[in-house]
Design goal:
The chain has 220 residues and is α/β, with parallel strands linked by helices. The chain contains four helices and 16 strands.
Length: 220
């Protein structure tokens, strides 16, 4: 895949992709956050004209990544879905029936408000709070204090939809989604394209990888 970047944490190899996902090599796991599937359908129900192809393209991108890496599991760090059920989530269930044996782990985010029975029927393993897996742990909200850290594991989070602002010579500026890696936790970019972003600032020792024109650029 063009534009991928190899990144190592705790002796684990990760592949950062321009498609806003990470492939964890040792576990053959695809890591994503904040897909917000069904968000476009939610807006259409409210009378706001949003093309359904936005949702279809996000789902097709997810399927492509799973097939490209030959991933054996999907870990979603919260907000796989956006709100209540709609026709777009019916389409997701149809896709799920075509791949019934593929494990999907969802760490519940603040937008994952469907009933537990819906996730069970869709063969999604739901995790409350924090999911621990080897050297890594996964929770939706980034930690706000040292007391929220997860011991010796490196923590992957989402929720903020991180981005960076790049300024050109003419003082024009553009904002790009990014991967944030701090000393003890990371923040994944929003996988869903129909989402906003929030600027993150790197501290000393942090690394920001901007996603620009299907390339990954290390900024710090």
């Amino acid at each position: 895949m063009q534009g991928m970047t190899r990144h190592k944490i705790r002796n684990e190899t990760l592949w950062l992709t321009p498609q806003r996902a990470i492939f964890w090599e040792a576990e053959k796991a695809l890591l994503v956050s904040d897909c917000h599937l069904g968000k476009t359908g939610h807006f259409r129900k409210e009378g706001i004209a949003v093309p359904q192809n936005v949702y279809k393209e996000d789902l097709e991108r997810l399927i492509y990544l799973i097939q490209f890496f030959k991933a054996t599991q999907l870990i979603v760090v919260g907000d796989l879905f956006h709100s209540r059920g709609n026709k777009e989530l019916d389409l997701f269930q149809k896709w799920r029936r075509d791949f019934p044996g593929f494990p999907i782990h969802l760490v519940r985010g603040n937008h994952d408000i469907l009933e537990d029975e819906w996730y069970a029927r869709t063969a999604i393993t739901l995790h409350e709070g924090t999911l621990y897996k080897g050297a890594f742990s996964f929770t939706h909200h980034p930690p706000e204090a040292a007391s929220e850290k997860t011991g010796d594991t490196y923590l992957f989070t989402g929720h903020l939809h991180p981005s960076v602002t790049m300024v050109g010579m003419g003082k024009q500026s553009l904002r790009f989604p990014c991967f944030y890696f701090g000393k003890d936790h990371a923040i994944l970019p929003a996988f869903g394209r129909f989402t906003g972003t929030a600027r993150v600032d790197a501290q000393t020792g942090d690394q920001l990888f901007a996603i620009v024109n299907q390339e990954i650029l290390l900024l710090s």
